[in-house]
Amino acid sequence: MRRSLALGVIWLAAAALAAGVAWAGIGVVGNQVTDDRPAPLSADEVAQAVEADQAASSTTIVPPAGGTTTTAAPPADASATTQTYRMEGGVVTLRFSPSGVAVVAASPNEGFDVDSEPEHANGVKVEFESDAHESRIDAWWDGGPQVERREDGEDVGAGDHRGAGSGGDGGGSGGPGPG
Predict the structure, then answer these.
(1) 160 found inside a domain
(2) Sign of dihedral through CA atoms 118, 45, 108, 58?
């Protein structure tokens, strides 16, 4: 009887130790993934950061739709351009060049999450998602900046001011898209 009791106590101690080690390991990994995340930038902070970055050698144009387009003066690549798009889900700033498209900044509006992924060889897809709405922009370089924007699965055309922003094609569909 004593032997069974001793084995039971040893087993219980080993199980508690194993559970404690597992709990600590999950805590360390969880903290690395979720803690110390910077707060998302507001639309104004994104616009200020882009303006400050481009201020020394750029021209800013405000199109009638309300977005801003910032075009850098000819430094390394004269055909490169930076464009900012305002959508219902947030604001995204993209850098277009013949070598591809890069996300400069993406700031979700309150209640939205943002996700960006490379698309094909030289494009990018940025999505702003909430429980009730999805804003998506596909951007690529095909002889110039090409953009396809969607709000809840519908193309946003030049005459549709939902999510109006700047774009080389007036903010509408840039063609069939990269895929």
Answers:
(1) no
(2) negative
- Contact of 167 with 85, CB cutoff 8 Å: yes
SS3 string, 87-102, reads: ECCEEEEEEEECCEEE
Q: How many domains does the chain have?
A: 2
Neighbour-count burial of 11, counting CB atoms closer than 10 A to its CB (0-12 exposed, 13-18 middle, 19+ buried): exposed
Same domain, yes or no: 121 and 148: yes
How do residues 120-165 score in pLDDT, each as one tens digit?
A: 778 999 999 999 999 999 999 988 899 999 998 777 754 333 344 4
Q: Which of 32-41, 72-81, 163-172 has the highest mean pLDDT?
A: 32-41
State whether 54 and 18 are in the same domain: no
Pairwise CA distance, residues 25 & 81, whole Å: 45
Is residue 87 within 8 Å of 93, Cβ to Cβ? Answer: no
Range of the domain at 151: 43-155
Q: Which of 168, 153, 143 is CA-nearest to residue 85?
A: 168
What distance in Å separates the CA atoms of residue 139 and residue 125, rounded to the nearest whole number? Answer: 6
**Structure token pair of residue 20:** 């404690």
Do 89 and 135 lie in a common domain? yes
Asked if 96 and 108 touch (Cβ cutoff 8 Å), the reply is no
Residues 47 and 131 in one domain: yes
Listed in sequence order, the DSSP H helices in 35-166 are 43-54
